[in-house]
Amino acid sequence: MKLTAEISLYPLKEDYVPVIRAFIHAVHEHGDLDVVTNAMSTQISGDYDRVFAILRQELKSSYNTFGKQVLVCKFIPGDLSIK
Hints:
Blueprint: E1 2-11, H1 17-28, E2 34-37, E3 42-47, H2 48-66, E4 69-77
Antiparallel strand pairs: 1-3, 1-4, 2-3
Helix pairs in contact: 1-2
């Protein structure tokens, strides 16, 4: 089953841009997903289990590296055209 997720990360610190960039870069490193980033959010599309696994993995890593953050997500079943 395919899944498309729209995510927005909100680090709870003043210098938030490097945290967001690091998270987006880490997600892009997984070549088996389609990832598109714009000024407001990042969209990730791929296998349902893989999308959740990567979000879990990269969010945990980001928490461990940068501390408290809020991740806002919207999940849409299916493979939407995000490019």
